[in-house]
Amino acid sequence: MSGKAPCHAGFALDCRSVRQGGPWTNTTLTDTSSSLIVNGLHGRLAGPFDLRVEGGECVALSGPSGVGKSLLLRMIADLEPARGRVELDGTDRNRMPAPTFRRQVTYVAADAGWWTDIVADHMAYPDRARALLPELGLADALFEAPVTTLSTGQRQRLALVRAISQAPRFLLLDEPTSALDPEATGRVEALLARLREQGTGLLVVTHDAAQAARIATRRLRMTPGGLEGETP
């Protein structure tokens, strides 16, 4: 698999350093060359779906509860059984080890899982993760806190930190601000905007039409028959 990774924000990132395993720098580059293509993807309860998301694009996905929005994100991320084809930069995901694909195309649930007691133990890149905390209004002390002491909103933002710190090329976000107040929501949206500007592709499920209007470069609506474009 290609070692190419997006720049991302909160701490300026030199994409070339990430590709080569080098240090993080203060150089901000833009990489919008990635593409995520979904063709005929369907599972037991939903599909088929056709979708293309480019690097540097934010696609907002809406639709009635229960129609399968979360399921679609999980199928794209190879977390649910599905038939069809998903390509990252022209390479079929089935030709990549699943963990490698999921690090590049990362799904973040509305209420993500936590498997050990301390927040820091979940962070593969603790320095990168820690640098993102102020961006989302999170105290540094939370990094060493027990997960059981966190509020739902803190867990939601820390799950986003965990995902972004791995420098994925695409983020699949399932209602990333559903547990947040307006101030925290604004912080998340600002961070997502910077990620998009610096090359990360975003597919975001939201029930908030106003949020979709703020963050999206393109909007889709899911129906039982598939995906339909929405007029802003």
From TrEMBL:
Keywords: ATP-binding, Cell membrane, Membrane, Nucleotide-binding. Residues 27-231 form the ABC transporter domain. One of its GO terms (molecular function) is ATP binding. Gene3D superfamilies: P-loop containing nucleotide triphosphate hydrolases (3.40.50.300). SUPFAM superfamilies: P-loop containing nucleoside triphosphate hydrolases. InterPro entries: AAA+_ATPase, ABC_transporter-like_ATP-bd, P-loop_NTPase. The keyword Nucleotide-binding applies. This is ABC-type iron transport system FetAB ATPase subunit. It comes from Pigmentiphaga kullae.
